[in-house]
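Mods, move this if it's the wrong board.
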Amino acid sequence: MTTSKRPKPMGSPRAAAPRERPGRQATAGGTRRTFGGLIRTLAAALFLLVLGSAPTIGAEILRIGVDPGYPPFSDIDGEGRLTGFDIDIALALCARLDAVCVFVLQDWEGLIPGLRAGKFDAIVSSMSITGKRRRLVAFTERYYSSKVRFVARKGSGFDPAAPAGRTVGAMRATIASDWLEENLARVAAVGLYRDQEALLRGLVEGRVDAVFGDALGFRNWIGGPEGAAFEFAGEGYRLDEGIGIAVRKEDDALRRRLNRALRAILADGSYDKINARYFPFSIY
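Not the wrong board. Structure tokens:
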């Protein structure tokens, strides 16, 4: 998953079964987990190569950093396979680049440090493009757009315009957490969580009155059994420049190649097919 200007409210903004995906991806055994437990158990990033044939000798390897605890964008299914919108987009881009995608699992807060340290070549993990992050990494053009919204229990009376005395949660090191700390911390308690799973558990268990984060990330959860008692509260906010792929600043050639590949999958319909697997409307 920055410092941003105070926004004006704007209009509103699965775990899908595994599908065949374009691109080449090496294979190895998967491990079932809860994401938070897995990442806390592993002190360093874990290489996870799934659902494909062994790489061609001499093929380019593109190491992709991803936080796998963010359905429907990235998740590990019941058979230990990496799945989600971000994963399918990365595979489609690798196919265009004639490269082999190697996914490196990394907790959210370690993604940018891991990229800069050379653990992987790019981050495809629903990362917002912001001025603060641009000081550390370079971004491609956006590959989708979203807004941030509040979610609260139905009937709770939570009002984003009057949050005094309430407790609001967000994922740590995100545009949502930055906005809460800048705009609500003087009147409401702000609770920060390591990942989406822990954040939503805090809401279900009543440790927070509402959560604030990516509307698309919340949408399917609200529509499922665990989130059925919850709803969006208030309107959406646009806090970023879209969602992009992060690369090291010195890797401008890779950034340009990824941009060309992204334009190609937008033009040939590949992007639309991936979009339709996860959302009944365009998120571009």
